[in-house]
Write a structure and sequence with these properties.
By secondary structure, the chain is an alpha+beta fold. 18% of the residues lie in helices and 34% in strands. The protein starts with a strand and ends in a 6-residue tail after the last helix.
Length: 89
């Protein structure tokens, strides 16, 4: 799989991230993750999304290429992680 978009956010001692991955067969997957002990990872397959032309190898999409619904899901997930920080000492 090829990483085509990535972002990371830090909320005090909590870190969260979003990666968009493109498989060779054209399927697009998204992973929400938080390093450490947190097990609330989320992953999605995006279906029916028409992406702009792929960026050159070694470059990533800009934020505006991420669908709003996906940004909303990520925001909800990070809020949930902040409200229930079960892995922060």
């Amino acid at each position: 799989m090829r990483l085509i978009y990535g972002r990371g956010d830090h909320f005090g001692r909590l870190s969260c991230g979003l990666d968009m991955l493109l498989r060779k067969d054209g399927r697009l997957f998204v992973l929400f993750y938080s390093p450490g002990k947190r097990v609330m990872y989320r992953s999605y397959e995006l279906i029916g999304l028409k992406l702009p032309p792929l960026p050159e190898r070694g470059k990533l999409y800009e934020d505006d290429c991420v669908p709003e619904v996906l940004r909303d899901l990520y925001e909800d997930w990070t809020t949930e992680c902040i409200e229930y920080p079960d892995d922060i000492d």
